[in-house]
Amino acid sequence: MVFVYTVGLKPTNQEKEQLNKRFKQAKSIYNLTLAELLKRNNKMKKDPLYKKAYNLPKGPERNKILKDLDKVYGLEGKFTGGKIASELRKNLGLEDYLYSKICAQLGFRAWLAFSKMKFANGANRINFSEQINSLISGYSDQGIYLDEDFICFGMKQKKKTLIKVKIHFKRDQYEEQVFQNKLLYWQLIRKEINGRHNYYLQAVMDGVAPGVGLEGGRGSVGIDIGTSTIAVSSEVQTELEELFPDKKRFERASEIARLNRSLDRKRRATNPDNYNEDGTIKKGKKIWNHSSRYKKDLTKLSELKRKEALSRKLAHRTLAKKIVSYGDRFVVEEMNFAGLAKRAKETKVNEKTGKFQSKKRFGSTIGYRAPGLLVAFIKERAEREGKVFIEADTRSVKASQLDHTTGEYIKVSLSARTKTVDNFKVQRDLYSAFLLQHVKDDKKTVDLELCSKNFERFLSNQDRTMRELETNLGSTGKKEFFKDELLKVV
User: Fold this and answer.
1) Pair 37, 179 in one domain
2) How far is residue 202's CA from residue 189's CA, in Å, rounded to a whole number?
3) Residue 425: helix, strand or coil by DSSP?
4) How would you label 249-263 residue by residue, b for 16+ Cβ within 10 Å and e otherwise?
5) Measured between alpha carbons, how far is 465 from 476 in angstroms, rounded to an integer?
6) Do 271 and 187 reside in the same domain of the chain?
7) Which of 91, 107, 111, 363 has the most beta carbons within 10 angstroms of its beta carbon?
8) The pTM is what?
9) Number of folded domains that form the chain
10) In this structure, is residue 283 part of a structural domain?
11) Parent domain of 440
12) Which residues, other chains included, contact 346 with Cβ-Cβ below 8 Å and sequence gap of 6+?
């Protein structure tokens, strides 16, 4: 299992200047590689054979023509990008500054970005990188390598251009256990914090991270993750938690909105020729001038977003660690969060008001809560500990509709947070997690017999969870769940 260990670097001002120079050189190679790939692709599109291929129906004949064209124009795969980057390294005279494996990795990254557009895999145009903030040495002891308490950037035989930077090792037991594993390669990372560059070294290791074992609970755990909450059901307990419950959320959002307005005003004031009379941006290539105050506001905005992302990542990792301790088999439904974040395509009219309905869906919520990131952390940790992680087929299981007592599928309104099963009120998300807990290894069917056997225990766990629920988030359905009890009191 691969894991990453990060340590801080302590470069002097002169070393920082040299490192920034290397990152700038890397950016040039990456962008020029990308430009060359686009140039070849555009040239290929003008070939009569290319047009002939796209007039043919999809099939072996069309695929063969396109494959032959890729070969003719040098667009055969990621190693094409690596080859272009290596040639650029030589042509730009950077052989003494950037190791060949580092340039090859930059070429692979350029190909990955290009292939997303070429094969319509989530991109329709290419964005050239303004910054390159990570450099990978590849599987080698050259380029980026260790020399006692220093990390060396460059080649051993090129002493004049070799950069040696002091590493801030912690010298604790955890770090000793980390380096007992096999080192795959080093990564040099640059991050901007409060407008200043900070540098880190990442060791990519092959093995087991210290403190990770098979300790914890046993049994199957069902996980139903939504856009704002996560529901968990195991053999001994249930959990319903809000995703990233940050107390400073609205305060931070208000400050981000204020900074965005300030940036827009300053941008318009210093670049009046780039806007039309109606306030829209003119088309075509433009030169943008930014004032010193604009740059200060931009730094503040970047820092706010960085802190938010860091807090979210920490909260998700903590929650993932807790959930993985509940059992040794985890089942979650396959979810396309990117699809949920997109605006609706169909235009609908509200029957009551006669007005057009908003096309907004869950974009801002998913962007803030990042449920997909949490699922990735749970999967990563479970697999690292040698546990089973299953992604159930959503269309086959249909956990939100299934009633285990009858085996029937009944659609429930998205706004309804509770439903009745066998004359008992259940919280919708917790019940879905309970059903996922009993999904078989085929990823498509639920063990209804085992559900019936464990249902009474689930009801007990659910009642305790709902009573101890701390969040006031409406999507948990707490008020709806205890509605009957409140009516009795009244």
Assistant:
1) yes
2) 7
3) strand
4) eeebeeeeeebeebb
5) 11
6) no
7) 107
8) 0.79
9) 2
10) no
11) 220-277+290-489
12) none
